[in-house]
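can u do me a favor
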């Protein structure tokens, strides 16, 4: 599909929240959605980086309606503080922030950092913003996963300690959690008769700060073969805006899920295991103290 962000319809009057919007795919998505007239709430864990990103969007799109708010997905207090300050209908939530393959560390709440940043924070955020999503006529929640989700099985042990820790497995588990969460939320909202759509997307391989300049040989290879952040953001933008995208769908790049325009993907088998999805849901509810008011 040779879909481009220029195909996005007019989004005037729509409000968008994007996590991790100061860099990479989040910044590219902020840019594309602001260009179509949406009011984009660019969230960042570091407000200085958020302000710098906002300035870039405003420079590229004079008159863009953007604001910056602090949101650290690895802190449940930060997630709650953001949600408490948020008011009004929310049309699009893009759960995009992420970290990849870092040495073992724990979030302020005591959970393994990939799971906390990439999944638990987004789970709690979505729950906290559900009333605002319900207040929009046909809201969408898009969560950004990865091909890494295919390379693992869900495990529920050791979410606090470094027992058996391996950084790539930890990343893959968090990205599978993004998909399991997407499908369980989709099922729960559908059965409650909600008009909210829930989708997932992944960017293939995109040149962003996920692969820092000092990430050695692998980082060098990635920089040479990866597509741009603007191209990598297309699947999440399609999922967030296309009139043809539907709840429960998963989009990624068309060429071998590696690069190219957005394409509807087959969901990895691990992600459609409802037993695992419910187990993850229950664990996430307990760990985050969330309440989804369906
Ligand atoms: N790039 C790829 O090839 C690729 C492939 C598959 C999946 N993905 C997924 O795409 C998403 C976006 O990543 P990217 O490639 O755009 O990387 P990126 O350029 O590093 O952007 C990641 C964003 O997430 C933010 N972030 C990290 N920890 C956070 C936290 N605790 N709270 C709030 N924000 C936090 C970062 O903020 P700071 O700037 O403060 O660090 C940054 O804004 C991630 O979910 C990643 O797993 C990317």
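np, heres the sequence
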């Amino acid at each position: 599909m040779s879909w481009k962000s220029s195909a996005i319809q007019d989004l005037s009057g729509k409000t968008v929240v994007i996590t991790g919007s100061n860099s990479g795919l989040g910044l590219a998505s902020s840019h594309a959605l602001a260009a179509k007239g949406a009011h984009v709430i660019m969230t960042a864990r570091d407000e200085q980086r958020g302000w710098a990103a906002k300035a870039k969007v405003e420079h590229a799109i004079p008159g863009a309606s953007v604001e910056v708010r602090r949101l650290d997905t690895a802190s449940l207090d930060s997630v709650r503080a953001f949600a408490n300050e948020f008011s009004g209908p929310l049309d699009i939530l893009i759960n995009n922030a992420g970290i990849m393959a870092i040495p073992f560390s724990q979030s302020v709440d005591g959970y393994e950092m990939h799971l906390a940043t990439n999944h638990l924070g987004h789970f709690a955020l979505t729950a906290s913003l559900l009333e605002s999503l319900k207040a929009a006529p046909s809201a969408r929640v898009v969560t950004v996963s990865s091909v890494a989700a295919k390379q693992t099985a869900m495990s529920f042990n050791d979410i606090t300690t470094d027992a058996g820790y391996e950084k790539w497995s930890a990343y893959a588990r968090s990205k599978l959690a993004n998909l399991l969460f997407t499908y369980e939320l989709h099922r729960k909202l559908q059965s409650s008769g909600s008009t909210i759509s829930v989708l997932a997307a992944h960017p293939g391989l995109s040149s962003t700060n996920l692969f820092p300049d000092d990430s050695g040989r692998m980082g060098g290879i990635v920089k040479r073969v990866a597509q741009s952040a603007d191209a990598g953001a297309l699947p999440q933008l399609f999922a967030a805006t296309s009139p043809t995208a539907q709840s429960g769908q998963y989009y990624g790049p068309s060429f071998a899920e590696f690069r190219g325009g957005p394409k509807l993907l087959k969901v990895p088998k691990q992600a459609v295991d409802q037993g695992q999805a419910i187990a993850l849901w229950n664990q996430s509810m307990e760990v985050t103290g969330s309440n989804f008011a369906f």
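The mean pLDDT is 95. hope that helps!!
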